[in-house]
Amino acid sequence: VRTDGSHLHAITPNSGESYNWATPSPDGRELAFMRWHVDGVKMRIFTMPFGGGPERPVTPAYLEGWAPDWAPDESRITFSSHNYQDRPNGAIYTVRPDGTELTRHEIFIGGHPEWEWGPRIIGSNERKQVIYDAAQRKIVETMGGRETFPNPEGDVSLSPDGSWFVNSHRSGEYNHYTFLERKSGRVVKSP
């Protein structure tokens, strides 16, 4: 669809299956997405050209995956899995967009993890907002504390230049947002 709403067209088949969590690659040429009920698997990760075209499976048929996110250099996709063989909260995986080099990470990074830059992923661990280095396979930094981020499991995002970080959490019937200016440590919270 164009920004004015014209030229709307489907890029996925109308097959009765559900397509969710579409995430464009940083260069805008590919989509990574989750598709429900494929080959007897509840959720599976695929990629395809942004304008439509053949779907390519990224995750193997035995592994359920959700919440794909591209690394800024497009070398990897991270996703979560809640397979029963994984720990109770699931596990985080990284994989190349062609499905090779599938890696299960022993340290669980929760929430909705987001790539920072290079191999670094922002998520939550033990009720803290953390940065996990996928290459070193360890947590390398903690961001704020419980007073800053009441629920590090919430949705997270970085500004395009990486200078601001935002975390959302729900309290009662409202969503609340905490913004962290990373260089100064200044915190701004929505009402």
Sheet-strand content, in percent, reads over 45%
The helix fraction, in percent, is: under 10%
Main structural class: mainly beta
Q: Strand order across the biggest sheet?
A: 1-2-3-4
Total beta strands: 16
Order of helices and strands: EEEEEEEEEEEEEEEE
Mean pLDDT across every amino acid position: 84
- The radius of gyration is 17 Å
Global outline = globular
The N- to C-terminal Cα distance equals 34 Å
Poorly predicted runs? none
Number of separate helices:
0
| Largest beta-sheet characterization | 4 strands, antiparallel
Description:
0% of the residues lie in helices and 47% in strands. With 191 residues, it is mainly β. A four-stranded antiparallel sheet has the order 1-2-3-4, with no helix packed on it. Strands 5-6-7-8 form a four-stranded antiparallel sheet, with no helix packed on it. A four-stranded antiparallel sheet has the order 9-10-11-12, with no helix packed on it. A hairpin with a 5-residue loop joins strand 15 (174-181) and strand 16.
